[in-house]
Every structure is written in C-alpha cells, then in structure tokens.
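Action item from last week, closing it out:
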Amino acid sequence: MWPLIAAAVIVVIVIFQRQPSSFQDMLSQLNHLVAFCYLWIWKRKTGPMFGFEFNLKNLRKLGLKPLPEAELRENPRKLNSNLNATDSVGFSGTNQSGEVLVASINRLHDRCSEVVVYLKLANGEEYRHPVQPGCRVYNTDGKTFSAGGLKFEVLEPLKRWKITYNGQLRSTSNAETDNMVNVRFSFIWKPMSNYLGFPHDFQPSILSKQIGKQQNSFKDLFSTLNSIVETNECIEQFGEIHGNVTVEQNEEKQLLLRGLKHRKHGIVDWNSISKDISIKGITEIGTQFHLFQTFTNNSESSSILYGYVCAPCNTIIRHVHKWSSNLIEIANENNFTLTLNAGDRVYELKVEFENNAFEVFHGQNWDFQNTVYLCRFTLNGKCGYGIMEIGSKRLGQNPLPEQKSLPQVTEPAIKRCDKLVVPFKDILCQSSKFVGGKGSSLAMMTSIAYTSWKQRQFRVPQGVCITSTAFDRHLEDNPAIKQQIKALENVTWKRTEGSLVEECERTINVICKTKLSQALKTQLRTNLEETFNVYDNIKFAVRSSAIGEDSEELSAAGQNETFLGVSGMDEIYLATVKCWASQFSHRSIEYKRQNGQLLNGGMAVVVQQMVPADVAGVLFTNHPVTGSRASMLISANYGLGESVVSGASDPDTIILKRNWDDTLSIAEKQIGKKNLKIIMSDKNGVTEQSVSPEEASHCTVSDTMAIRLGQIAIYLEESWGTARDIEWALQGNEIFLLQSRPVTTDAKFSEFDIIHEFDSAHFTDKEEYTIANFGEVFPGAVTTLTGSVITKLIGVTVDHLMLAKEFRHRYDPTTDVGLMLFSSKFFLNRIQEKFFSPLKRKKNEMSKAVEMGIYGRVLDDDHIQEIAFERGDNLPFRATLKSFMATVKGLILGKKWSEGFKQYLAIPESEEKPAQTIKELYEQIDTISLAAYAAATDKHATTTMASMLWNLLTMKMLSHNEMSKSLYADFAILTTNATDTESGSVPRNLKELAACIAKEVDTTKLREMSEEAALKWIRENTVHSKTFLEQFLKRHDHRGYKEFELYSYTWGSQPEKLIKLIQNMLQSPSCYAIKEQTDDDPLKKLQASMSPLKKRILSWLVVKAKMGVQQRELGKSCLIKAVHIARKEYRKLARLMVSEGMLPEEDLLFFLTHAEIEQVIETRSAKLLQRAKQRQKLYPMLDSFKYNEISVGFPIPMDKANEKLKVDRMSQITGFPVCQGVVQGTARVIHRFDDVHTIQSGDILITHSTDIGWSPYFPLLSGVVTEIGGLVSHGAVVARECGLPCIVGALHATLVFKSGDTVLLNATKGIISKIET
C-alpha cells in the first residue's frame, strides 16, 4: 500500500517539478524524491525508537518502568564484527560560571576504549585525562562503560545516569607546569528534554534533499540510505549534570551543569571522515539546540548538515530546514552569526568563542583531530553557553608506541557440573557457579600465573576445589540436614517464632555430625594425588567458597570459616564438613538475611597448599577509603596473612603512588606495632607468636618488593579489567597470590547522591518552584516507592494537563515538566504552571483562577508570565482547545462521576487471595491496582479543573477585574458550609461519634483508659457508639495523615489514634457540640454591592462552585482509596518477600522503586538492598526539611535559625482570609504532625499546612492559621465546614509565634497578632 502511494507521489512531484537546469540537476531531484520515499516508508514501518504511549493501564509504556528496548539501547551493547565498531556514550555540560565537564567513553574491540575527560572549575582551573591529547585506554573490562578511571552507569534508561571518576587528571591551568592531581567526582545526570533517536527521528524531507544532491547513481543512493538506517543508532538528550568534585584534599565543590548526552552504537571509521563540526548549547530561558555537519570521502560536497532546536517546555522539537550558510564555512571564525529556519520559526544564532580549547586525537594512529571550544552565544537575543567541536583529518603518525590489551580473564560458560572435586588447572574450576568466588578466582589466577614478564611473575599455591555439587549430594544423602535448614529458614524469615542464634547452632550441629560420602572421599584423594603426587606431609588451607561471594555485588568476606594448617585426609574431611556448616553460623545467616540472599545458596570448599610465609597481607589497587586509583594500599605483617585480615595485629601500611602510566613509587609508610604474628604449627593448625620489638620496628616489606607487588596487582587489574583486593604471601623472594576479588566499595552512593538521586532536572538558573497546594497534599518527603508510582502518576497527569506531553511529535515521559522532585520533596514548577491556562504575555482571568487555586491569592509575578509565554507561545490552537474541552468535560460529567465515586467508595475491599505468590501479587499491583489509581488520578484532575472554573466564574461575578482581600473574604462567605464535602464530614462525624459515646458510657472512666483498652471497650460494651465507630471507619478507613504516602498508616489500620482524640474531645461538651446551620442569606454579608440580576446569577454559581468542591473532594477520596488498596497490597508483598528472605524487613520495600522491587524479586540484588538502606537512613532528615512557599533557583531547605532572626521582632503576620471570624485564644504551634496530640480544646492552630490527617482535630480548635494554602486547600475547606476562622499563606507564622502565646486571629482582615499579657 505505502509503496504505491509513494510511487504516485513521486510521479506527481516529478511532473510538476520546475524544469531542471541540467541532467545532473534532474538526477539530483529524482534522487531526492527516491530518498524521501525510502526514508518516509522506513520511518512509518519502524515507528519511534521507543514504544512510549499515554496508556494508563501499562506502566512501561507510560514510562514508570523501563521499556525492554530502552534497557537494551542504553546499557552497553555487544559490538558487531566490523573492526570500526563502536559503542559510546558522552556527556557535556556547562554553566554561566564558566564551569565545564566533557566526559565520554567509546568502547572498541579488543578491550580498548577511547576516553575523554575535561573539567574546568569556576576558579579557572582546568583538568584533562592523562592520556590526552590521545584518548586510547587499554585493558578495560570489555562489558561496561568503565575505562581509565571514568565510569558511566545506567540507573534508569533515558532518565538517570551516574558519572564517576576517581584518579589522576592533568592540571593544565599553569602554562609552566603540567602536574598530575588526584580528582574525584560523582554526578547524576537526568534529562531536561525529550529524547531524539536517530535515524528514527530524522526528518525525511530534510535528509533526503541533502542525500539526493550527493549521489550519482541509484546504487550509491541506496547504499547510503541503507548505511543511514542500518549502520548506526544514536540517542540524544539534553540534561543536567549535578554532583560534587574534589581535587586533592580540597573542600568538596558542588557543580550543576547543563548540556547534551550522546549515546551511539554502530560503526565509526575515522579514515572516512574528512571534517566534522558540532555546536550544542542552552539559553538562559532553557532553549536547547544542536547543530552538526559531517563531511565524508574527503569531499566538500559530500556532507550531512542537520540540526534541531528544542523548546524547554518539551512540547516541540523543531528540525532545521534552512541555513544561512554551512557550518564549515564559518567554523574557523572567532565570532559568527548564523540564521536558521526551524519548523515555523526563524532563529538568529550569534556565537563567540572563548580562549579555552583542548584537542583530542581519535583512532589507533591519531587519525582524526577534534578541537573542543567553549563558547557563549545568543539565540534570538537570549544569552547562553555551550560547546563547539571542530574535527578534521590529521596527518602524521601516533607518537606513542602501539599498545595492545592483555587477554581478558573471564569465567567459562558452563551449565552443568557432575564432578565432586576439580583441580585448579581444570577449566571447570574457573566457574564460580560451581566452585564459588574464591575457588574461581584461584583457578583463573593459576591460568595466568606464568607470563613472559619476569618482573611480574608470581605463583598460586596448588590445590583442588570440592564443588557445590558435592554439598548438594551431601544434602540428598542426609535428609535431616535439609529438614533443619528448612526450620532455620522459617525462623530467619519470620515464618515461625524462635531464637535465630539457637537455630543456627542446631543446624551446625546437625551438619557436623554427618560424614562425607565414600564417592567424595575417593575423588578428593585421587585429585590430591594427581596434583601433589605425595601429600601426606603437606599442610593445607581448607577454605569455604560460597556461591555468590567475592563477586562485584557481594563480598561476604570473612563470613564463613577457613581452617589453616590442616594435615591428613581425616582432618581434611572434618574441615570440609565444618566449612559446609559455617555458612549457617549466626554471623553468616544474618549477613545473608540483611542482603536478601538464600540461606543455602550453595557452598564449595577450597583445599589449597599452604605457604609458610615470612610476610603476608593484602593489597588494594584502589585506595579502600577514598577509592582513588592513584593510590594503592598494602597492609602487611610477619607470618601468615590471617593476622592482617582478622585484625589480630596492627600491620604495616604502605601507600604506593600510581601514576597515570602505571609507574609506581612509595608515597607513604606507616610502621605498625606488629606485636604478634601467626605461623603454622608443627602439628595441625596455626599458632600465635610474639614479635620482638627490634623486628617490629622494621617494615615487613622492602620498597623493591612493594613495587613488585604493585606491578603484579596492576597486571591482575588489567587482566580482569576491574579494581582488585588481593591477598598475597612472601616466602623468601618469591611472591604467592592467595586470593583476588573485585573491590565492591568504589561504586557506592554517597549521601549527596542518595539525597539527589531522583531529583528532576533544573531547567534554568531562573527557574522558580512552589510547594503551595502540593506541600499540603505531600507534607514532608516522599519515600522512594511513593515517588516512583503514586506521585509519578500524578506528575504524568499534571504534565498532560499542561500540554507538555500531548503536543510534541510523540509521547515521551522521560522528563519531569510540571511536578518536580528535589530532595524527595515535590514542587510545582511555577513557569510550567502557567501552561494550565491559555498563555498570554499578561495574566488572564483563567491564569488568575489557577493561582487562586494554588496559592489562595494572585501573585505579582509578571516576569514568570513573560518567561512562560516565551517558552510556550508556540502551542497550537488545538492544545488550548483540548485543555478547555477537558475542563468542559469535567463540568458536564462531574455529577455522573460523583455517583460513580460514591459507588466506588461504597464497594467493600476484596478479601486477600491466600495462595498468591510474590510474582502474582506484584503482577496484580502492576497491572490492576496501579491502573485503577491512574484512572482515578485522571478523573480527579479533570474535576479539579472544573472546580477551579466554577470558582473563577464565581469570583469574576464578585469582582471588577480586581483580586483583593475583600474578594477573598466574600468568596469565603459564599462557600462556607459547603454541602457534605468528604474533608468536612470527618470532624462532623467525629463530633457525632463523641456525642453518642457521651450519652452511652461513663466518659470519665473511658478517658482514663489507654487508647487500645478504650477501643476494645467501645467495641465490646456499647451498641450505638460501636455502630457509629464502624460506620466512620467504613467511610474513612483509607484516610489519614500523609494519605498519598504508601509508607504511612491510615485511620482504618490504626483506629486507636482516633480514640485518643475522642478522649480529648470528651473533656468538654463544647468540643462535640454540633452547630446548627442557619438559613441566613450569605449574599447579604458580602462587602461587594451588586444588582438583583447579578445576585441571582451569583446564587446559581455558588451552588455550582460548592458542587464543584464536593465533586473534587469525592474524586480525591476515590483517589486515596486506590492508593490505600495499593498500600495494603504493597504491605502484603513486603511480608511475602520477608518470608522468602528477599527483604530483611518489611519497611525496606518502601525505599525501593516499583521497578527495583521487580529486580529484587528476580535477582535478589544485594546492591539494591544496600542502596535502599541508605535511603531509609536519610529519610527522617529529608522528611524534616522545610521549604519556603516559593523557591527561586534550586530549592534549598530553610535555615530555621536565619529565618528566626528575620522575624524575631515581629508580632503580627498577614495572610489571606478563607473563612471569616475573629477569635482570641492560645496559640498551638505544631511543626511536626507527631506533636498533634498536644492540641487542647480552644487552641488556635498555627502550622505549615494541613491535610486530612488533621481533620479529626478541628473540633478542638477555635481557629486555624497555615503558612501555605489556598481558597480550596484542605485547611480552608474544613475550616469553612466547621465555621472556624481561618487564614492561609501566613508566611513565617510558625517562627513568629510559639505555643502558649495569646493571639488574636482576625480572619476577616487576614491578620494574626500576638497579645502581650
């Protein structure tokens, strides 16, 4: 079908095409058309690079979980067979302070990578990778983006990357010096634009025109087209780089940069590229652009010129289709101007080069020279900063000698092992799946022990491994062990009660009573004879080697037993059984429990010849504390290494300085006390021996030997491609290696990383954020799980309403646009907030209504309106129309939805499925519960918009185009006593419950009981009160403080919290007295005068406005019920995961993302659990952070001490009246919800904000003051329902006043004052 349409299009265009001036011109036109049809058909056939879709029933397509194709394309990919194959990722970022980071890794064949690192700080200091101007680095791990000290890790495809470096960089700031300094940085990258995937997102009309001009035959044409769509894939995203840099021992410095991420997989042949130019930058208002031109085949006419401009609101990406000149024509000028036609816009770009530039040579022979310039520019008058790269062929040879990588040490892929014992030299012994990490490492070291480099020679003591198959067979032969392990699992994973210590001891005893099978004994003797010939007088180390230990994810060092100096077969048999048993020691079991591992994960045993060492110790190729690869640490003591690893003696410490070229020198020595050493006993075992003071005063390792050890360690590091932790021994002048494991501490997240791990991108330095409204809905910080699903789905809906996701060329959820997360706290982007209403340079009534809904007032922020207009005035009319129609839909269907909301709330929760597995429950949450929540979110957002429109029309009728406090007061009068809102019904129902209890029981006796006892007494000894209580819990069991937070508990799960409140209410009948509503006409109380017709219209609008509030509150209650259903299912999932040993405790689940939970279920990832523990530890601190209502720039928590100094002399605060009245009383200032129980009858509550969790306490209050909030915020709605004087937006009220102050709250004027007594 499509080919026929394309052919028809070609014919029509050719017929009506202007007359060609020559045959070449005609051929070019024809090529253009053929290329266009080819690319257009290919693009239609393949679709977008990633299958995102605004589908609320599919979390992956919605962007809340990684798409499989995104994981594939973002993570390191297998290189194809072409010698010029490449797999690369690069990040560049700059800021207005002149700070710069350029970092890239280009993975090549043969464990080689091209690495670029350039860092410039605000003080002018510049640092470059030591291999520059070259960029080749050898002996990489061949699997990850890690080379030359630089490492990139995908945290979440298309959304988060971790960028780290730890090692030496060349300081080039001083022309007279060229010294190496230790630099460490850790950044997290997150996107601030939607992705562009090439060739999928190329515009066929633009690309085909260029291709058509350059090809002379159809063969060349189709060859070029095939190369474009099949050879390379690229993903580009602009983003933010945020993190810390430390140079030498100087103070850590925070950097926030913006720039481009470029991910590429395919082929790059530097010999085929003659010239290349690229300009990328970001303006002060966040507009992003990338322009590039590549020349091939040494021809000035054979090039690809392409570019795009991306609006910061992420709505539109414009591809450049017209250029005032080629980039190459102006690239050599220091300053130039370029005019671009992109989409329907014309851009004028003025570029000014800075003096800073650096060069990088690509290719084995430095075939291509790339010069990187820092530049400043203006784009349509808006200033910006960025990077320009100019590349060209380089003549001459690489001045450095040719290098090659060592053969990589890798585990063989072995699926099955029937052998019970294997020697180190057997290739099967290299598989950690069957011999554990320790055994596998020894076998692989044995395979590389003898090299042609004499200075790096070492030996590995010979030995054999008893495989995990042997232990599995032992379990089959001894059912009592399997039964005891099951009992241990039940206690460890909290399935049954019992002492874990005692159960561990019982398991060890059961195992130690068993004997090895005859088959195992025979194979063990046979292998020892083949390895040693005669072994009767040899002393062995019998060492546990658990499956999974000594891996990159889990060390497990020292968790299981090692027996030294073992001699004789009987002793080896006994030691083997003890090694098996040791994996069930309390120490080992607790380690596994904390890391979510199986208790019986498999155990092998190493039987290795011991070396009567003179000196032994450990060596780290990266410093174990700082992680720096520029420092290697050696710990050593006389005798066996056991005294070092066990901490029994204070060893010598030697620091080796490792230069970028791997030359070593002694940097530091610390002579330890070495008061004892461990040596082999004449009999079995080892013994401790004192070290003489004379001997202890000397260093155990000579400088020459330390250097030799360092060189061997580098050799091992290069062989594996990762940093190593090595155990070694010296006997005379000979070096023995006893272990080599990967370092597991280098990639750990710092506290800063954890705090900002999920932060949204900060688009510009002028960005503003607010917690108004959202600070009330999400008080405090959100947990990781809540942030990954509950608030993320709200964010998707908010972005959808703002049109930021709806009117781009495809749905792309990779970037947070409206609802932003910083330090686990949610904010609304004030610039993007303007997209809720049609954009104008000046505020219109709709935008004012939006502000009234969010802040409770209209703000003086014309500069924000102007920036929003500049960002989004390009939105098509259909966008505004769709937004309006969505609101109208809410108006029309609001009543119908309300009935649906009521029915949903009345549905009893389904009973739990008893036989549900972990995977089944996760799948249910994933596909049903969260989908229901997403649908509820969408409807609630629409009803909220409809409610805002009714409020707008009501206020419009009240005002004369002026937003004043008197208008707010009049609106509050009209909306007081809104009919049966969900929030307002809570205090009213509680009063009814308290009144019923007061009639039915002895209140004095009830108040003296504990909350638990009082609850039980009411349920067992009353009739009407029990009925009232159960009805309340049935209606409101899903509500409570922090009700959007999955980690929190609701009234239904903790009803005793309500009982405590009722006990307080029963102290005074006034607290539960229900005021009768009067029939007074509220229109008579208004300050504004109006005609009878206007009053009639206003009366109708007030009814609609109250109905809008009711519908919005019903929708919210449904939304919270959906959250509560998910909360209960997550709690059940947590219990199941603890019962299967996947989690050490239930609460830890809430510090994993929804996608990470699936990973833990599939893989039992210890690394994710450790990160979750870090998040859990920091959560209380993040939850305590307070922020100003509006933050300018990156949100920073308030410094309470400084804020207190500003307000110390103040005695009066002004806010905005939302429920009129005047009251004098005692201030009750509450900073934390945990202190809400201190409220006394008649108090005036002063707090930051309230949510429905505060509603039960409103009957005790005589007035309410909040620092943030609006006319329709929780505090305002419930205060009007209860008739309590209330003001909102009273900034700093919690600092000016303190509990116990006598205050006067004038909620008619919006003032609260301190009264001196």
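Closing note: Residues 1092-1139 form the longest helix (48 residues).
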